[in-house]
Specification:
AA/rel_permease1, disordered C terminus, transmembrane, Amino acid/polyamine transporter I, cell membrane, globular, mainly alpha, disordered N terminus, Amino acid transporter, 19 helices
Length: 482
């Protein structure tokens, strides 16, 4: 039986910070380890290495090391911002919830719009790629039909109890991490060149077929690739109301997830660069990671690893669907949506304490997105991450400025982390503006941003007496645990 929904009075006073206005609806059953398992699963380091890392090797050669190292520094700085905000505002909903509370409802609604669109599209992108890896064992799979089946199965799985999902994603995560360890071992055991060769940024010159120095512009694009490859450590915040002792645990979960992801991706990529018999052939390959694996481990092992990548992608889809459901649930509970719609989407199952309706709706969005061409999906999601990180950095600055005495984690080296984040993201925007190939993606992201501001100022703000009334609310953890 579903839990009753508490109606909101027509004109209540705005609650004070710290007031326990949210009912304890979700199951607080995740520890630090469980949160990290789901968060790492959504990042899927193995998928990032094989897909994004492989593309980066082809385009940027050994510049991948510098690019991913710089991206790792940026990611840790962003993780510090997430950690401080999550510790201060341990509320489900991810970026939307943090930005709404620390930067204001207008920017929060924009962040909601970006996530509402990007999360289902990312699920569709991942699902459409599953057939490529399952195809090594099952020939003739249709990418679209496979994607549709995967989205249905993963959406159903995401409706299970959160603890069950933590164990399930943990098993899949172990398999993909084993594949990354294998890549690293193969590279370091068969080292063909010294470690210092990694720090000379060279890429394949198509005209001559030889290595040539990588331009600074290429290195900057490699940094953006690395930032995208590491993305997802902020996903720990989506499970704030299902994590024990969230004020302390969430900060650790975010920072640990970021650190593990950076190491799990950059070490295998460095090993491949050191262990490939010919860097020219590696960079000239359409699938460099698979080519290296086939060269050093043989076809049978390669097939097993590629199957593990397929499971890693499915694992990521489960984790992202979990996040998407909690995003929509949190927005509905805050009444950032029309009244009747909010009432339905904020419902929680009585047995598993899961926002089943919101999760199913996001699954339907992802299902529909599988009918969109893959290049359109990639374009639509390309620049949204930059805006999300920018809002998180601005939110961290505004939070520290307006809530100096609020309890919680305090990031080191203040105010360098958010300031350097904003500077790095500014460079990313400049690169996008200077590269005509990025204009469409940037334009689509700007449309999402404009739509969010329009929705807030034309619909939500005039209804301030009935909408977005609980943005200062928190969960009473003692009552929640009881």
């Amino acid at each position: 039986m579903e839990q009753p929904i508490t109606s909101v009075p027509a004109q209540p006073p705005k609650p004070a910070i710290g007031a326990a206005n949210y009912d304890a609806s979700l199951s607080r059953s995740l520890g630090l380890g469980g949160n990290i398992l789901i968060t790492l699963s959504s990042i899927s380091p193995a998928s990032s290495v094989f897909i994004l890392g492989g593309a980066a090797l082809t385009a940027f050669g050994t510049g991948v090391v510098w690019g991913f190292l710089i991206a790792g520094v940026v990611s840790i700085l962003v993780a510090f911002c997430y950690a401080e905000l999550a510790s201060a505002y341990p509320v489900a909903g991810g970026d939307y919830s943090l930005v709404s509370r620390a930067l204001g409802p207008a920017f929060g609604v924009v962040t909601f719009f970006i996530s509402l669109v990007s999360l289902p599209l990312i699920v569709a992108v991942f699902a459409l790629g599953v057939a490529d890896y399952l195809g090594v064992a099952i020939a003739g799979l249709s990418p679209q039909q496979t994607a549709l089946v995967v989205v249905v199965l993963t959406t159903v799985t995401a409706c299970f109890n959160i603890r069950t999902n933590a164990w399930l994603t943990g098993v899949f995560l172990f398999i993909e991490m084993a594949a990354l360890v294998l890549l690293a071992v193969l590279g370091f055991v068969h080292m063909e060149r010294p470690v210092e060769s990694l720090f000379t940024a060279q890429a394949l010159d198509p005209a001559t077929g030889t290595l040539a120095p990588l331009a600074i512009s290429g290195l900057m694009i490699a940094v953006t690739q690395g930032i995208f490859a590491y993305n997802g450590y902020g996903g720990a915040v989506y499970f704030a109301e299902e994590t024990k002792n969230p004020t302390k645990t969430l900060a650790r979960a975010v920072i640990c997830s970021a650190a593990v992801t950076i190491a799990a991706e950059i070490i295998p990529l460095a090993a491949i660069l050191l262990g490939a018999s010919s860097q020219e052939e590696l960079f000239g390959s359409a699938l460099p990671v698979e080519a290296f694996l086939s060269e050093r481990a043989g076809e049978a092992v390669t097939m097993l690893v590629l199957l593990s990548v397929a499971f890693a992608i499915i694992n990521a889809i489960i984790a992202i669907t979990l996040q998407a459901g909690r995003l929509l649930y949190a927005a509905a509970r805050d009444q950032a949506l029309p009244g009747r719609l909010s009432l339905r989407l904020r419902k929680v199952s009585s047995k598993g304490q899961v926002p089943v309706v919101a999760t199913a709706v996001m699954g339907v969005f992802a299902f529909a997105a599988c009918f969109v061409p893959i290049d359109v999906l990639l374009t639509a999601t390309g620049s949204t991450l930059t805006f999300s990180y920018l809002f998180i950095a601005l939110a961290a600055i505004n939070h520290r400025r307006t809530n100096r005495n609020r309890a919680g984690y305090r990031m080191p080296w203040w105010p360098l982390p958010p300031a350097l984040c904003i500077a790095a993201l500014g460079l990313v925007f400049i690169v996008a503006i200077l590269d005509p190939a990025q204009w469409l993606s940037l334009g689509i992201s700007l449309v999402f941003v404009a739509a969010g501001f329009t929705y807030y100022f034309l619909y939500l703000r005039p209804r301030s007496g009935t909408h977005l009334l609980l943005l200062d609310a928190v969960i009473d953890e003692e009552n929640h645990n009881a």
